[in-house]
Amino acid sequence: LTPRSVADSTIKFMKTKGFDLSRVVPHALHTIPNLEYYDVVIAFSKEALKAFPPDARRMIILDWTMDDPSLVQGSEEVIMNAYEETYQNIKSHLNDLIGAIIGSEIK
Prior knowledge:
Distance between the termini: 31 Å
Helix content: 25-40%
Mean pLDDT: 90
Order of helices and strands: HEHEH
C-alpha cells in the first residue's frame, strides 16, 4: 500500500465531526511499528486487505471494504452525503465491534 495525502474534502468533512485531520500524515504499512502484535486490524479496501499475509496468526483482520468517498464526484451536497454515509457505516461497525469486546458502544 502506498500512502496518499488526506483529501481536502475528507479534512473538511471530518472537521464537521470534530476531528482535525489537517496535520495527519499517512504512513506506509511497513512503517507501522510492532504491527505483528496487533490483535485487530480493519481493512477498508480490497487493496488494504491484500496487504496482510493470509497466515497472520494472532491478528484478526476485519474486511470492512467500502467505497472511498474522496473519489465521489458531483455537487458539494453529493460529496458530503457520500462522506456522511461512509462515516455512519464505520461508526455502526465500530459500535458493533466495541459492543462485542467490552459490552458498550461509542457515542
